[in-house]
Specification:
The protein has about 220 residues and is an alpha/beta fold. The chain has 2 domains: about 100 residues, Rossmann fold (3-Layer(aba) Sandwich), CATH 3.40.50; about 110 residues, Rossmann fold (3-Layer(aba) Sandwich), CATH 3.40.50.10090. It is about 30% helix and about 25% strand. The protein is built from 9 helices and 13 strands. The strands form 3 sheets. A 5-stranded parallel beta sheet has the order 2-1-11-12-13, sandwiched between helices. Strands 6-5-4-7-9 form a 5-stranded parallel beta sheet. Helix 1 packs parallel to helix 9. The longest helix has 11 residues. The model has no long low-confidence stretch (mean pLDDT about 90).
């Protein structure tokens, strides 16, 4: 089964690798491109060991200033971010139970009553509201933009995999089954009237690949 990988990764990237491990064939045709705007060094330099750094993607993990990011506790949204953070020596103290940014901040509100929280974010994401006792700083770390891609890819694949709401918006409604990495991406699909063919059990590339592999080969259908 051929799976359209819409994220901007190399042929040995995490999703492509996860797909091959379950005998699926990744077809790379990214619909988005990301550009780092800052390494957030100025913001990270103000954090102490009992403060928190929020990293909501493996891309963000790799974009921040690595030496400074080892100082605070780190909170992440899913397994790819956790693995990337631990590989760089970061102290992961919290992983979102539901695998999305909204639930991660809900857990932080229940857990953290003081100190500083730094959330380096995409330019597409609004900074969350702070809460009493917490100093929240949220610099823009990178920007994500749509890019030109070969639209004939839709004729060469069986399933389109989407790992973010922005990927959903960039692809739009095509006559293909969609495999979603998690709730926020599924919500974006439903806004377009598309019911996902599968949704990953956990917000990770391995879980997304497994969800696709565990289902019968889909037939093409026209999104509602």
């Amino acid at each position: 089964m051929k799976i359209w990988v819409t994220r901007d990764e190399e042929s040995d990237g995490p999703l492509s690798t996860a797909l091959r491990e379950v005998d699926l064939d990744p077809v790379l045709e990214p619909v988005l491109e990301r550009h780092v705007l800052t390494d957030a060094a100025d913001s990270l330099a103000t954090l102490r060991s009992d403060d928190w750094l929020i990293l909501t993607s493996a891309y963000a993990v790799n974009a921040v200033h690595a030496e400074l990011a080892r100082i605070p506790r780190v909170a992440v949204v899913g397994e790819p971010s956790k693995l990337a953070a631990e590989a760089k020596g970061f102290r992961v103290g919290l992983v979102s139970g539901r695998g999305d940014g909204k639930s991660l901040f809900e857990e932080l509100r229940a857990k953290v009553s003081g100190g500083k929280i730094c959330y380096p974010r995409s330019a597409l994401v609004w900074p969350p509201k702070s809460w009493p006792g917490v100093d929240l700083i949220s610099p823009i770390l990178y920007e994500t933009t749509s890019c030109d891609y070969d639209r004939s890819v839709a004729k060469r694949v069986d399933v389109v995999s989407v790992g973010s709401p922005s990927a959903v918006d960039a692809v739009g409604a095509v006559n293909l089954p969609f495999a979603s990495i998690g709730p926020s991406t599924t919500k974006a699909l439903k806004r377009l009237g598309i019911e996902p063919w599968v949704e990953a059990t956990h917000r990770s590339f391995a879980s997304l690949a497994k969800a696709i592999a565990d289902h019968e080969s889909p037939s093409r259908h026209q999104p509602a």
